[in-house]
C-alpha cells in the first residue's frame, strides 16, 4: 500500500512529509522538494535527495523546452537526483519518499517510469501528489494500492499523527 498527501499549493504538504519523517523511526530514501527564494520571492524549486544530493528542479531563469508556468524545468537534475533517489530507496530503504509528483516532475519519462517501479514494488511509498487532472497523476491516484489523503487548513494539525500512524501500520505489514 502507498500513501499520498494532496491539497492546494502552499497548504503544507512538504512540511507534513518532513515532520512525519522526523517522527518515524524508519530508514527512508527518496526525495523532497523545496522553494528557492531570492529577494523575498519564489524563483524556483530545489530537489533534494534524502541522502544529501541536491539539484535545481525548476527556476525562472532556466530556458529550454520544458516549462511549467514561469519556470523552466531542469530535467537533467530531476533525473540525476529524483530518479536516482527513487531507485536507491527501492534498493536500500524501507520506505520510498516522493515529494512531489506534479507537473514539473512529469516532464521526464524516466521519472514517470521510476514512479511506476516504486509503486509496483512491495515497499510502501509516501509522497505528495498534485491535485489536478492529468492522465499520469489520475493513474497513480486511481491505483487500488494507493491511498490519497487531503490536507486542509482544518485538518492540518491532526494529519501529522494520522499520517504517521498510517505509515507505521503500512511498514509493519
What is the topological layout?
Elements (H helix, E strand, L loop, with lengths): L1 E5 L6 H11 L4 E11 L2 E9 L4 E6 L7 E2 L2 E3 L1 H18 L2 E7 L7 H12 L4 E5 L5 H7 L4 E5 L5 H17 L1
Helix pairs in contact: 1-5, 2-3
Give a quick summary of the entry:
The chain has five helices and nine strands, in the order E-H-E-E-E-E-E-H-E-H-E-H-E-H. With 173 residues, it is α/β, with parallel strands linked by helices.
In words, what does this structure look like?
35% of the residues are buried. Helix 1 crosses helix 5. The protein is of the alpha/beta class and 173 residues long. A 9-stranded mixed beta sheet has the order 5-6-4-3-2-7-8-1-9, sandwiched between helices. It has 5 helices and 9 strands. The mean pLDDT is 95. It is 38% helix and 31% strand.
Uncertain segments: none
CATH secondary-structure class: Alpha Beta
Number of domains: 1
> What is the rounded distance between the termini?
9 Å
Shape: globular
Strand order within the widest beta sheet: 5-6-4-3-2-7-8-1-9
Largest sheet: 9 strands, mixed
* Structural class by secondary-structure content: alpha/beta
Helix content percent band: 25-40%
Provide a count of the helices. 5
CATH architecture descriptor text: 3-Layer(aba) Sandwich
Which tags fit this structure?
31% strand; 9 strands; Rossmann fold; alpha/beta; 173 residues
Amino acid at each position: 500500500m502507498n500513501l499520498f498527501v494532496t491539497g492546494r499549493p502552499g497548504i503544507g504538504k512538504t512540511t507534513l512529509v518532513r515532520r512525519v519523517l522526523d517522527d518515524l523511526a524508519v530508514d527512508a530514501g527518496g526525495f523532497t522538494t523545496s522553494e528557492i527564494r531570492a529577494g523575498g520571492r519564489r524563483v524556483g524549486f530545489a530537489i533534494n535527495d534524502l541522502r544529501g544530493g541536491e539539484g535545481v528542479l525548476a527556476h525562472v531563469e532556466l530556458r529550454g523546452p520544458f516549462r511549467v508556468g514561469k519556470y523552466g524545468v531542469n530535467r537533467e537534475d530531476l533525473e540525476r537526483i529524483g530518479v536516482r533517489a527513487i531507485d536507491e530507496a527501492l534498493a536500500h530503504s524501507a520506505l520510498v519518499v516522493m515529494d512531489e509528483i506534479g507537473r514539473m516532475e512529469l516532464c521526464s519519462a524516466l521519472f514517470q517510469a521510476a514512479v511506476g517501479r516504486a509503486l509496483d514494488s512491495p515497499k510502501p511509498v509516501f509522497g505528495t501528489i498534485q491535485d489536478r487532472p492529468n492522465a499520469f497523476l489520475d493513474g497513480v491516484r486511481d491505483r487500488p494500492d494507493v491511498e490519497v489523503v487531503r490536507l486542509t487548513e482544518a485538518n492540518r494539525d491532526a494529519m501529522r499523527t494520522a499520517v504517521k500512524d498510517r505509515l507505521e501500520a503500512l511498514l509493519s505489514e
